[in-house]
Amino acid sequence: MTESDNAHLGAAGHVDNDTLIALRGVSRHYDSGAIAALTDIDLDIAGGDCVAVIGASGSGKSSLVNLLCGIDNPDTGTVLWRGRAVRGPRHWTQLRRQSIGIVFQEFNLIPTLTALENVELSLFGNGTSPTQRLARAAVMLDRVGLEPRLHSLVTTLSGGERQRVAIARALVNKPSLLLADEPTGSLDSVTAVAVADLLFKLRADLGMTTVLVTHDEALAGRCVRRVRIKDGHIAEDSAAIARVPSVVDKQASP
Amino acid sequence: MNLAGLALRNLKRRPVRTSLTVLGIGLAVGSALALISLSHSIKDSARAGVDEMGDDLVVMQKGASDIFGGFIADEAIKRVAAVPGVTRAAGELFMFAPSGDNRSVLTLGWPDTSYLWAKVPLREGRVPAAGERAVAVLGEGAAAALGKKRDDTVEILGKRFKVIGVANYTTVINRGLVLLPLTDLQEASLRPKQVTMIHVNAEHGNAADIARVKDAIEALGDLTASTANDMLSKDRNFAVLEAISLAISIIAIAIGAIYVLNALVMATQERTREIGIFAAIGWSRGRIMASIVVEGLVLYVFGCILGLAFSALAALALPYIPTIGNLVSFQPSPLLIALTLAAALALCAVGSLYPAWRAVRMSPAAALRRL
Prior knowledge:
The structure holds 2 protein chains of 2 kinds.
Chain A: H1 3-12, E1 19-30, E2 35-46, E3 50-54, H2 61-69, E4 76-81, E5 84-85, H3 89-98, E6 100-103, H4 115-121, H5 130-143, H6 159-171, E7 177-181, H7 189-206, E8 209-214, H8 217-220, E9 225-230, E10 233-237, H9 238-241
Parallel strand pairs in A: 3-8, 3-9, 6-7, 7-8
Antiparallel strand pairs in A: 1-2, 1-4, 4-5, 9-10
Chain B: H1 3-13, H2 15-52, E1 57-61, E2 72-73, H3 76-81, E3 86-98, E4 104-110, H4 115-118, E5 122-125, E6 135-139, H5 140-146, E7 153-156, E8 159-167, H6 172-175, E9 177-181, H7 182-188, E10 194-195, E11 197-202, H8 207-218, E12 223-226, H9 228-233, H10 236-270, H11 272-280, H12 285-317, H13 334-361, H14 364-369
Helix pairs in contact in B: 1-12, 2-10, 2-12, 2-13, 10-12, 10-13, 12-13
């Protein structure tokens, strides 16, 4: 951690021991500062949390997710992983390889590859042999119900199947944190429910912290905690009203 | 799957561009290899031709810039022959001389007393008798190129010569020779009493003795004695030929590298989003760059295979080129192939690194926003 990080932490205050990832005074602007996507955000996400990030289009939800996984950098402020400032691109790369899985609205699969190969890509650089990579990818695809389509090019899959491949790719490394940015946004309503059910089932099975960005109030309602973003600020955070001690989301609760 | 497999998938997505890029690299490597090999082969053919004559030393006019550019008075042959340690010396006048059908043939004139006549490996016929004039012995290659056989008449420098023998030398350059009596060639070329070179055999073949003979010959004044290898390495024509070949080869390979650069710049621009995906799933910048460089190297490998095929075709086609086909053999050495491919590899790697570097400069989020 750098001196400036420490200085900032000092100003921002304490980080709980159970906090997995936290933002401290984070701002992000685009177009040379003309557009403020996020302004002075402080946010703690505890291990095991299921957080729905909701808000209108352009409110800054996706920018928040991008900063939480380090695919974008804040203009000011610090991102803390298990209480320590993330040190830069290499550290972020390591976190995305080992500890953070991401599911995008647009699937973001490699069109020339099969479902199995797309999932296998996430295991590159983890010290696993090609055989182990394929085996683990196959197991994960089996868990999302795509065992019969392992060797199908992703361009031949339906939208729901593609998103299952994307979920398998995000989870194959057994991440501590799953970030899902509008995971059902490109799907029809029936498929969206099926994919959401799968996502919450896997979350319950694997017990990972989940941040779910969505427009869908019903989907957001399945998370324990709701953070509403408005005009780049946190307008509402249910954890601030009544901190939920449990790591189990409402879906998993009786 | 590995990076090479990923590269192959990406290249197969755009078959036309990939094929054209491979073709460009193939032409670059093939032409570079052919040019360099050709210039080396011309020199090697000349060296092999002189070696086949069995010389220890060749004597030329001091200061002559190339093997065709110096002339010695033929009385010097006797002085050279009298140098201690020299067992025999034979003068030779040579030039590219026009034959009747506008072909130039490498023509040698030897005195009728020259020991070189006795060493001609005749396939048929005979060599000139003492004092015999207006006769010629053709190498097999020259006979074939000129369409002549024994007892035919061949026209050299506007004069007619009867073919009395055909020689089957082993080296390509000697197979293309026309051998005439020295006096005939001196008259026909208006160079009376002149020779271009004196062939010398030393009494002892060891390097120290040859060096002593060389010094003694050069002490006669206005003469340079050297081994065939030294003579050819100092030849200005060969030096110019090699320099031009090398320069054109470098340009050709650089153009091949630019093909790779262009193909990969376009590919990475089109796949910016995919590069963002790789970053988002935890690929390091080094791995992303490696995946792009490997794509360049796959192009290079296929281009080199094509280039080697092109140069092999050039080697097969060379004998059919009228001006040099019967004088030069084309055999790229493994070392030359290795050096050419290494140079192409280095340039292709550089051509791949730039687009790879460009690809990882952008933040993953910005890359993912690209359509």
